[in-house]
Design goal:
The chain is an alpha+beta fold. The chain folds into 2 domains: about 35 residues; about 120 residues, no CATH class. The chain is built from 3 helices and 9 strands, in the order αββββαβββββα. Strand 7 and strand 8 form a beta hairpin. The chain starts with a helix and ends in a 5-residue tail after the last helix. It comes from Colwellia demingiae.
């Protein structure tokens, strides 16, 4: 079969278009998105989320509230003595924004009395996100109530996410 130069150009163009369509059709299967997949790692908070307030309830009488005031943070503690510098608070907020954990496939049964409730208000979201942290010996379990998923993080991360050690 003999094709002219124009014929070969058409063959190449249609071949490339077919390959592009094939890649686009299988892209989600080849490269799953973190938000849509249930397996793998997932960030605790959305990637570009800006924390406005972070409330940590250790118990009914012990509570820590961090509020963004301009470019700095205001710390209010009830029942807990905290001596945190602005830099330590910034590091804690950075840890919340950058930490990721492995999504757990099964529902986890754990004593709810061990949990620390954390409520985070993000800029641009009307609903407050609620997390329950369970610091264990070998890992830190985080339950995200909004998405109804469990994340497993390294145990050492509990020191970075919480202002006091448990």
């Amino acid at each position: 079969m003999k094709l002219s130069r124009t014929g070969w150009n058409n063959v190449i163009i249609f071949s490339v278009m077919t390959i592009i369509l094939l890649i686009n059709a299988t892209n989600d299967k080849l490269f799953p998105n973190e938000e849509s997949g249930n397996n793998g790692e997932r960030l605790i908070l959305p990637q570009h989320g800006v924390i406005l307030t972070l409330a940590i309830d250790f118990s009914e009488s012990q509570r820590v509230l961090l509020e963004r005031v301009g470019r700095s943070w205001q710390l209010t503690a009830k029942g807990i003595m905290l001596e945190k510098t602005e830099q330590q608070i910034e590091q804690m907020m950075f840890a919340w924004q950058q930490s990721s954990g492995l999504v757990q496939a099964a529902e986890i049964m754990i004593d709810s009395a061990q949990g620390v409730a954390v409520k985070i208000a993000l800029a641009g979201e009307s609903q407050v996100r609620t997390f329950i942290l369970y610091p264990l010996d070998d890992q830190l379990l985080v339950y995200q109530q909004q998405d109804n998923i469990w994340l497993a993080l390294p145990a050492t991360l509990a020191q970075q996410l919480l202002p006091v050690s448990l």
